[in-house]
Amino acid sequence: MIDIAIPKGSLQNQTLQLFEQAGLEVKRTEREYNARIDDPRIGKVKILRPQEIPGYVAKGYFDLGISGTDWIMESGAIVTRVADLNYGKQGPGAVKLVVAVLESLQISSARMIKPGSRVATEYPNLTRAYFSNLGIPVDIQFSFGATEAKVPELTDVVVDLTETGSTLKKNGLKIIDVMLESTSELVANKKSFADKEKHDDISAVQTLLLAVMRARGKTLLKMNVPEAALDAVISMLPSMKRPTLSKLYSTDYYAIETVVDRSQVNLLIPLLKKSGAEDILELAISKIVP
Length: 290
Prior knowledge:
The chain has 290 residues and is an alpha+beta fold. The protein has helices at 12-21, 53-59, 69-75, 124-134, 166-170, 190-194, 196-215, 230-235, 262-274, and strands at residues 2-7, 26-27, 34-37, 42-48, 64-68, 80-84, 95-102, 118-121, 139-142, 157-162, 173-182, 184-188, 218-226, 244-247, 253-261, 278-284. The radius of gyration is 25 Å and the shape is globular.
């Protein structure tokens, strides 16, 4: 059995949704940090701050955990990075760790920041390394949040995580550089990952989670097509490999099924109908395992 650490806070809702869709529902109450997953491969489940998870996984308190790229790198934890899960607070995609200053300043790059400037951030290690690489000595101030509100009275520069940059803009700040892009990652303890039994359990969880990620934004189309229209219909069908084709009993019709991007479906279905497809079905996909 493996023990898993799940992030609370900004990544929590997306993580719980992902596990539920993977058939690994995390059962808890609103105030519970100790949770459970009814799966014979999974033992202890704990909900913790994503900042702490890489370190706890590295030390062996957990075999597997989910945290952001930002906190994995900030912590310096030595873990096995098993999979990129590609989601943030709002859904799929990455967020950015950025350098920002007052909009009114004539600064367009972090290289233009004056030596000795005050830099507020929740990421002192990444920030220190970044400015050291630029050769600019700065005064790094650890921030416990609301970093954007501290300019200009308490700090000159902020290094903060953002999805859209709207909060920074509302506070009169502009982004002048991107330090890194961050998304959610599945990380494992190195000894656990090297252990045969635990590796198999980790791989099983990875397979289920990635199967859900692959299925998002996809849909299954099924239809019947007369032989005369077959080439026209198949020519407009995208698929993961090739469409599945089977002849209907005692007719000149064929059944076709294929996986397509959900964003294309509303444009594709009328074209398929016009080209001769009949009995078109659109079906949801919960998992895709290649």
